[in-house]
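INFO  loader      accepted 1 record
INFO  loader      residues=303
INFO  predictor   begin
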Amino acid sequence: MARVSRGALMAAAEGLLGRLRMAPARASRCYNSAAAAVEAEAAAEGRGLGGLRRIPASGAAVGGGGGRWEMLAAKEYEEYRRSIYGEITHKALLVDAVGTLLEPAQPMAQIYRKIGEKYGVEYSEDEILQRYRWAYEQPWGKSRLRYVDDGRPFWQYIVSSSTGCSDSQYFEELYHYYATDKAWLLCDPDAEKVFEALRKAGVKTAVVSNFDTRLRPVLQALKCDRWFDAVAVSAEVAAEKPNPTIFLKACEFLGVEPEEAVHVGDDRRNDIWGARDAGCDAWLWGSDVYSFKEVAEGIGVKV
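INFO  predictor   done
INFO  writer      dumping tokens
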């Protein structure tokens, strides 16, 4: 099968958008100008990065018949993609870790305070959360990457800045807690059967995450490491999302071209823009798709 260039794909997609003037449709993975207002509203409500919610499929979004336009756009996009790649529209699925595949079992500030009480931490959970956000947003000047190897220097800075406690025993207890299955939950309880279906259909899978070297033990502890053919973790590949390098590395590990892969993640900047800069398709978790079953069906795999 002849390879179709990324430029040709982008040109066709832009032409489709121009003809239909559609509202965002989950299957088309595209957004119209109304998205800007929704994103501003999301920011005002404090939903954070990747918090853009789906615009309802109603006439209010684009004028009368908006829902019909969405259905037509979705169908045409899927037919267009399948005309190039066949019934299975992507050879590989790349998945973000935190916020998409897994999530903290308890709020971070609650754990920082609970473990920290015996070490003299006095800040409230709200204070810890505010200090954490401030510290995390500061430029990290110790190295080019935040997560180098086990990430200890970066996390020591975060913990001490968040709690005011620099006790090494406190840090170690907290650090090791987040390497266990007690600290994490799978976002989608039905994910296992979906990844089994993807494997049977020949779709390769990889985790792509800004994380330190604890990610592999975490995946093993949650018994989901076997779902994936590869793991591209920033601490190991020396590149953090949205740097396209980490996505290109994941594709290299899987033996696919970027245009043959779709990445799913919950952060618009790191996951969506980063993946698209690498040449991959990209779907926003919590907006374009809400479950891994939806992801599989979007690829053309029935679960």
